[in-house]
User: Fold this.
Amino acid sequence: MSSQQHRTSADVPAASPLFTALELGGLTLRNRVSVAPMTRVSAAEDGRATRRMAEYYSAFAAGGFGLVITEGTYTDKAFSQGYRYQPGLTDDTQRDAWSRVVEGVHRHGGRIFAQLMHAGALSQWNPYNGGTRGPSGVKPRGQQMTVYHGSGDYALPEPLSQEEISAAIRGFADAAVLAREAGFDGVEIHGANGYLVDQFLSAGVNLRDDRYGGGIERRVRLMVEVVEAVRAAVGPTFVVGVRISQGKVNDFTYKWSEGEAAAAVVFGTLDSLPVDYIHTTEFEAWQPAFGAGLSLAALAKKYSRKPVLANGGLHAPAQATGMIERGEADFVSLGRGALMHPDWVRRVSEARAIEEFDRGLISPIADLENARRHRERMRAQSRSAVTTP
Ligand SMILES: Cc1cc2nc3c(=O)[nH]c(=O)nc-3n(C[C@H](O)[C@H](O)[C@H](O)COP(=O)(O)O)c2cc1C
Assistant:
């Protein structure tokens, strides 16, 4: 076995909890391994999901994943779009394009949730409106993401007006209804990674002095209103989850300034809301969230009674199994592990090796064409290594 591989056979007993079913908001997932949401900037220019995206997503279900969560999908034609070639869920055309993706995943026995995302101040591209909007006029740290066609500094956002906040909330609710009509099994509200909902949660970029700003118990207000609007729009029987992180795409090491007290408010608030699961993400899911003590997933368990989906560096089967066995999470999601092995679940259950992530799959551009070309190059290289004496 090379050092590039993780052993699977010794680590994952056939009775691993990863391979047991999970009941989630009236839905049965066939196992506890999900594909994490991953932006692939591969939609049509007008935000329609493509045939190639349908093939890409259905491969995960064919490879055994119980649940696929889509890439962050924009929710309105005002200020939500983040990236060029990002898919949207803002009209019937975009809805119908997604329904072909959903069918492909269902055909292979998987479930699929749409991740609903408003980019806020991190928007790098928006054909519908000039300028960006955020909680306050604070220029985002760092540089735009080149893997998503960005370059240079982020724009200085204008603070959202109350009407614009109401429109953004309506966007989430309308997009959730379109998701249900497209056949999705649920939606995940993107409250993580530095996008709009997370911008409101974060003290450094939310300087508002209205009811959306102040201490953490006030900064959760946008999240609360988005969840309530989505639930009211889709009714009681459609799965609604929320993703939460500390780190941001433009500030990886960010920590909540209030420490565990923020976790208590965020997860305690979600506990009281009509959500079906909480998705936590950290660089390594099992590490303490604040230098010592519990992981973010375990904190979500401590302060809520909701099922917890843990994410971050869980592609080694023993780590994924450990999160569930220790009671830190109910199910896990894999990002890079799923890109590397769309059949990760089948591989692990057959005790086959898991390889290290190959960054060429998402670099220089994180789209599906780049991944196809990269895989072709790798195949050609290994063929020539075999034939060259
Ligand atoms: C190419 C790429 C795109 C991503 N896009 C999103 C996204 O749209 N929404 C989201 O919540 N997270 C996104 N993420 C973060 C992943 O969901 C996940 O949190 C991260 O990859 C860490 O998990 P891993 O260690 O299993 O890869 C993305 C990650 C990658 C690699």
Remarks:
- The pocket of flavin mononucleotide is lined by residues 36-39, 71-72, 115, 190, 192-193, 243, 281, 311-315, 334-337, 362, 366 (CB under 6 Å).
- Residues 2 and 228 are 50 Å apart (CA to CA).
